[in-house]
Write a structure and sequence with these properties.
Elements: E1 7-8, E2 20-26, E3 28-29, E4 35-40, E5 43-47, E6 52-53, E7 63-66, H1 69-73, E8 78-82, H2 88-91, H3 94-101, E9 105-107, H4 109-120, E10 130-132, E11 139-141, E12 144-150, E13 159-165, E14 169-173, H5 191-200, E15 204-208, H6 221-232, E16 239-242, H7 248-260, E17 264-268, H8 270-281, H9 294-297, E18 305-309, H10 319-324, E19 338-341, H11 350-362, E20 366-368, H12 383-393, E21 397-401, E22 403-404, H13 405-417, E23 422-423, E24 430-434, E25 439-444, E26 449-453, E27 456-459, H14 463-474, E28 476-483, E29 494-498, H15 506-525, H16 528-532, H17 534-553, E30 558-565
Parallel strand pairs: 1-25, 3-22, 5-8, 8-9, 9-10, 14-15, 15-21, 16-18, 16-19, 17-18, 19-20, 21-23, 28-30
Antiparallel strand pairs: 2-4, 2-24, 4-5, 6-7, 7-26, 11-12, 12-13, 13-14, 24-25, 26-27, 28-29
Helix pairs in contact: 4-8, 5-12, 6-7, 15-17
């Protein structure tokens, strides 16, 4: 029996007075690009507006964004956007999408500093209303009363949101969190706050699934600090540590580890300096002197330096990629130096990271990852921590988010094991209706992923991106044919076969001759009417050329025909 077809909903869909609606527009089914909507009584709030990273399947694209079309269509019904914390996968899209949303923004001090810097780089940045909230006081937007609950994470001021919805109940949006008894920077996860919330009653928990497949506990940042200090002492050359640029606690850990070895620390990468600036502005760099600029670091011997650099996920334009190519203007590595990957690999980035590692090995550089030494702990809860959260809060329903499908499914199973009545695995764009009695998917809205293509935003199925994919795998072929008014070839056709043939190769010269002859024969065998018809003649040339490469090379190139009549 086929399942009933879900209804496509628009901004004016009917909302029951005794239900709250959860609509994820990003962050479900893949990592990053987090964006979620909560609706009640015809009014809405958005939680987070983050970016994601493209992988090798999308050539020429680095940044992905959630499609905000449905949120934008809400108009005045969308009351504002609340940020849980300052990681790029939760705030990074706002500088691109705010002109489509134009809503007030709400964040705690450090997160607001991060967002503000991004916005002020835009020509319209001073138009955006950004409000710094006091996490000790509820934020009231229409029928929503939002309480902030401190959680430990790899960035200061991470918050879970307890969203009280009218008289219906409370939805707990955990955001990114973990349990860390000694987080180095930032506050402890507020166990008492979560227990009190559980005593009040939690209707549904919308929770982080990143490590739902990993048993045990994620560990403490303090152990990374201690382990780095011990590890640094093993190396006599320059030390490069690559980590997430927003991991302020890791900056502290690296600095203190460097101090124990008599080394100074240099930041390499624009995003690192931006985060450091926001951290100093809000008091999270107290006790740490200014980091070295690259031109100053170059004057010091390598055994006195630790570099913190961006690019731990293989980003081609980040500092570590340039260092591995030996073309960075400030950092050059040699045998005896070491690169420490103090981060986890985000799924999809494996190939890009391996390419960087291979280039570093070719330079004679040592490499240390979390598989070799305890140089990283996750900022997200492992299974034991998830169980603890369910024990504290005892929600009736659960909605796992922030992960690929397999992490979300495992989170859903764990939630049921912890006594949750029902757990729904969402997909981006699905409309989930939550009442005091039930939770169910009732339809879907427009969703998807946008790509930053040069200086514009396009959907990922835009022809420019699709054509680039086809060219990447099958090459590009341009055939230029000069014909008479009657359609006779006045000269052999000219070929430009990028990614297919080498004009300077003797072997390929034979293939070029063969395809030119095949096209010439096809044109001669066409009827007079077809040769006079530009479309028919061009299509015959295109199909003949493409078929030649399909038969000889098992390639179907992106093929264009330039037809010139004289």
């Amino acid at each position: 029996m086929n399942a009933p077809k879900e209804k496509m909903m628009t901004a004016d869909f009917h909302m029951k007075p005794d239900a709250v609606y959860f609509v994820p527009l990003g962050g479900c089914g893949f990592f990053g690009a987090n964006m979620a909507l909560y609706g009640y009584n015809n009014q809405w709030i958005m939680v987070d507006c983050g970016m994601g990273f493209a992988d090798d399947t999308m050539p020429g694209v680095d940044i992905l964004l959630p499609d905000p079309s449905f949120a934008a269509s809400l108009g005045d019904k969308l009351l504002g956007i609340i940020f849980t914390h300052g990681h790029e996968d939760h705030i990074g899209a706002i500088e691109h999408l705010w002109p489509r949303l134009k809503k007030p923004l709400y964040a705690t001090g450090f997160t607001a500093a991060r967002v503000r810097k991004d916005l002020l780089e835009q020509s319209w940045g001073d138009q955006a209303r950004l409000y710094e909230v006091d996490p000790k006081k509820p934020l009231v937007l229409g029928p929503f009363s939002i309480r902030f609950i401190d959680v430990a994470h790899s960035i200061p001021e991470a918050q879970s949101l307890a969203i009280r919805v009218g008289d219906l109940g409370t939805i707990l949006h955990t955001g990114d969190w973990k349990i860390d008894a000694d987080p180095v920077v930032g506050k402890l996860t507020d166990a008492a706050g979560f227990k009190a919330l559980g005593d009040e009653g939690v209707l549904a928990l919308v929770g982080d699934s990143t490590n739902a497949m990993v048993p045990g506990h994620s560990g403490s940042e303090r152990t990374v600090c201690d382990n780095l200090a011990e590890l640094f002492g093993e190396f006599s050359g320059a030390i490069v540590v690559s980590c997430f640029s927003t991991n302020v606690a890791r900056m502290h850990s690296i600095y203190h580890a460097a101090q124990t070895c008599g080394r100074q620390v240099c930041l390499v990468g624009r995003s690192l300096w931006a985060v450091e600036d926001a951290a100093r502005e809000t008091g999270y760099m107290r006790g740490l002197p200014p980091f070295l600029e690259g031109d100053v670091a170059r004057q010091l011997p390598s055994d006195k330096l630790v570099y913190i650099c961006t690019g731990s996920q293989g980003e081609p334009r980040a500092a570590l990629s340039r260092i591995s190519n030996d073309d960075h203007p400030e950092v050059s590595l040699a045998p005896g130096d070491v690169v420490i990957f103090s981060s986890r690999t985000i799924p999809g980035n494996e190939r890009a990271i391996e390419r960087i590692k291979n280039r570093l090995y070719a330079l004679g550089v040592d490499i240390v990852t979390e598989r070799d030494a305890p140089v990283h702990v996750s900022g997200h809860p492992y299974r034991d921590e998830l169980k603890q959260m369910y024990e504290w809060t005892r929600p009736r329903f659960a909605i796992p988010v922030h992960g690929e499908r397999m992490q979300m499914e495992k989170h859903g199973l764990l939630a049921r094991e912890c006594g949750v009545e029902n757990a729904i695995i969402p997909e981006n764009g699905k409309v989930i209706e939550i009442t005091a009695q039930d939770i169910r998917i009732i339809g879907h809205v427009k969703s998807g992923v946008l790509a930053i293509e040069g200086k514009r935003l396009v959907e990922t199925n835009h022809e420019a991106i699709l054509a680039r994919k086809r060219i990447m795998w099958n090459g590009s072929l341009v055939v230029t044919a000069v014909v008479s008014a009657a359609g006779d070839l006045l000269a052999p056709v000219q070929l430009t076969a990028l990614g297919l043939l080498d004009e300077n190769s003797e072997l390929d010269a034979g293939y070029i001759t063969d395809v030119i002859e095949a096209i010439g024969e096809k044109v001669r065998n066409l009827s007079k009417d077809d040769r006079r018809d530009d479309h028919m003649l061009s299509e015959a040339i295109r199909v003949t050329a493409r078929r030649f490469f399909a038969e000889r090379f098992d390639r179907k190139p992106q093929t264009r025909v330039h037809l010139v009549r004289v």
